[in-house]
Amino acid sequence: YLTDSRVTPSLNKVSTLFVAPQCANGYTSGTMGFANTYGDVQIDCSNIHVGI
Length: 52
Description:
The protein is mostly beta strands. It has one domain (1-52). The protein has no helices and two strands. It has a two-stranded antiparallel ribbon. The protein is elongated and about 40 Å long. InterPro entries: Agglutinin-like_N, Agglutinin-like_N_N2, ALS.
């Protein structure tokens, strides 16, 4: 689930926080994707953090 998204205008960046839902059997799998309506948006893959 998307839980938070914020814009930092001075850096011209958007930070987004995703949190996985609670799963009945303790795990799940799937795909997380991004889409935008503007052609000039780039995803900075060098700034990705994952945790459990």
